[in-house]
TrEMBL record:
The keyword Transit peptide does not apply. Transmembrane segments: none annotated. It holds the Pfam family FCD. This is GntR family transcriptional regulator. It comes from the Bacteria. Residues 8-78 form the HTH gntR-type domain. SUPFAM superfamilies: GntR ligand-binding domain-like, Winged helix' DNA-binding domain. Coiled coil: none annotated. Gene3D superfamilies: GntR ligand-binding domain-like, Winged helix-like DNA-binding domain superfamily/Winged helix DNA-binding domain. Keywords: DNA-binding, Transcription, Transcription regulation.
Length: 232
């Protein structure tokens, strides 16, 4: 998520990178962002540019600054459940063919990532990390669920060891974020999703690439069906 920005619009891309990390829950509400020096180095921008970007995010209400020994920039963003379905439908219309493009890309990308992760010799720490993300998604409050779900999907991508693949999963999730937020939080849907997540994790941890691919594909198909149902 915090990969180096490209040359050109450094300020705009810095805002975009940090904002996407916040919206996807990489940095959840209450989390402290990395120190300025570290964050600027990871984004490959000057500290002046970073401060300008953080100032804009602070003005927009996404972060706040705290002073003192344990100070820094802290996330204040809280996802909203009050997503207007009509606005989402207009977004679908505006996206046009791009929506089918991103859904097709996702259905190739994420099952492949899960299958690749299942082939790797994961360390105990990596296995615990994936299980922790699974539990977080299952125990998340409704207003935190989408971010916890995003972190779960990103965790699988991270286990591939490919930063390019992880970035692609994150970018795809961001492109679909507003539409996913428009799906009502129904207990049956969340329970069904949790069962699918557990199947994905089980296949990855038991070294079953085809099972991981199949479980992930079934999960994505179910999400696409929900999108179609609520936004048609």
């Amino acid at each position: 998520m915090l990969r180096p920005v490209r040359n050109g619009n450094a300020y705009e891309e810095t805002v975009e990178r940090v904002l996407h990390a916040i919206k996807l829950g990489v940095f959840a509400r209450g989390d402290r962002l990395p120190a300025e020096r570290d964050l600027a180095a990871r984004l490959n921008v000057s500290r002046v540019t970073l401060r300008e970007a953080l100032s804009s995010l602070r003005e927009a209400g996404y972060i706040e600054s705290r002073r003192g020994r344990y100070g820094g920039a802290f996330v204040t963003y809280r996802p909203t459940l009050a997503v207007d379905v009509e606005d989402a439908r207009r977004l679908v219309k505006d996206m046009g063919a791009e929506l089918n493009d991103v859904l097709a890309f996702r259905t190739v990308l994420e099952p492949g990532a899960a299958a690749f992760a299942a082939q790797r010799d994961l360390s105990g720490e990596q296995r615990a990390y994936l299980q922790r993300r699974l539990v977080e998604a299952e125990q998340a409050d409704l207003d935190e669920y989408r971010q916890a779900d995003s972190r779960f999907h990103l965790a699988i991508a991270e286990l591939t060891g490919s930063t390019s693949l992880t970035a692609s999963v994150a970018d795809t999730r961001i492109r679909l974020n507003d539409l996913l937020d428009a799906i009502p939080m129904l207990e049956a849907n969340i329970a069904h999703s949790a069962a699918q997540h557990r199947a994905m994790v089980s296949a990855i941890l038991t070294g079953d690439p085809e099972g991981a691919r199949r479980a992930t594909q079934e999960h994505l198909d179910a999400t696409a069906s929900l999108l179609a149902g609520f936004l048609s």
